[in-house]
Design brief:
Helices cover about 30% and strands about 25% of the residues. The protein is built from 10 helices and 15 strands. The strands form 3 sheets. Strands 3, 4, 5, 6, 7, 14 and 15 form a 7-stranded mixed sheet that branches.
């Protein structure tokens, strides 16, 4: 098989396509022939050597993917060869490859109604959105949620999950195409986060009391303003940030507000089971349709790493072996 290998941390070009031995499953393991591979921003930080936890070199990047089970090892009981699956909790060997080795619990059924590219857009983005909304921000039906940056993989999932849960959804996007996508996915109101006064206008459209929940995907830009836009006892869940920002905590104090950070990697096993049980149900019911943006050949992984860090995303970037 072919796989992307990283032998030294650095620029995107350190990722090179190499020939590797085909994988063989051991007890409790599954080999998946990947048809699509999800790209996540965190993988660019790891590749550059700028993340808190780094793998031993050399390694194959990647957590998300979807494909067909090619072989199962002894003691595997819940999945059989030929099944269409998506990866719910990463893999053992990395996913920027034609094959990946997984634990049995890491593969979940992919409904026939979804493409492999959509399956590759489930794992980290949709799980992050669900955890941010419901486990960290404790969003409840009838509340008002601002998805601050609703056009990427996490944002598009958050819009759909919040709408299906009975919240009033306000989304933002930096391009006309992105805002149209957010509206189509179920946001009640959509605003241009590059326009002057957009946040105040968004607050007014919800009655002027502020948001009960803010899902923040660009805290380095927005967090200081978010604090002034929450309602009494409002919650801000910080999911993404690319640098420091100075804030005045008095706004949180006067509103009795809550500011929480989150990492999907910090979820407990029981929390992960809860997340993916909810996502499996949403995928099966059709209330969650993962959004796919660019599809890029596996050999051009370096280009995908550059594109995933650019603004104006519309859905998930995937690699195709």
């Amino acid at each position: 098989m072919k796989a992307i290998r990283v032998r030294t941390f650095g620029d995107p070009e350190v990722m090179q396509l190499e020939d590797m031995p085909d994988l063989v499953p051991g007890p409790g393991q599954v080999v998946v022939r990947l048809h699509a591979i999800g790209i996540n921003p965190v993988e660019t930080y790891v590749r550059a050597g700028k993340y808190t936890r780094l793998p031993a070199l050399p390694y194959t990047p990647g957590v998300d993917g979807a494909g067909v089970v090619e072989a199962v090892g002894p003691d595997v009981k819940t999945v059989a060869a030929g099944a269409r699956v998506y990866l719910a909790a990463g893999s053992i060997t990395g996913t920027y490859a034609e094959q990946t080795l997984c634990l049995e619990a890491q593969v979940h059924p992919l409904p026939e109604s979804l493409s492999f590219a959509q399956g590759a857009a489930v794992g980290i983005p949709c799980a992050t959105a669900w955890r941010g909304l419901f486990q960290k921000a404790a969003a409840r039906p009838g509340e008002r949620v601002l998805v601050h940056g609703g056009t990427g993989g996490v944002g598009t999932a958050a819009v759909q999950l919040a709408r299906a849960a009975g919240l009033t959804v306000i989304g933002t996007g930096g391009t006309e195409e992105g805002r149209a996508l957010v509206k189509r996915l179920g946001a009640h109101y959509v605003f241009n986060h590059r326009g002057p006064g957009y946040l105040q206008e968004a607050v007014r459209c919800c009655g002027g009391d502020g948001f009960d929940v803010i899902i923040e995907l660009s805290a380095h830009t927005n967090l200081a303003h978010d604090i002034d836009a929450i309602a009494a006892r409002g919650r801000i869940a910080v999911i993404g940030s690319r640098g420091p920002i100075e804030i005045d905590p008095r706004g949180l104090m006067t509103r009795d507000g809550t500011l929480v950070g989150m990492s999907l990697w910090s979820a407990t096993d029981s929390e992960r089971r809860e997340i993916f049980a909810a996502l499996d149900a949403a995928l099966e019911a059709g209330t969650l349709l993962p959004q796919v943006g660019a599809q890029i050949p596996l050999a051009e992984a370096a280009r995908a790493h550059r594109e995933v860090m650019q603004e104006g995303a519309r859905g998930k970037i995937v690699l195709v072996p």
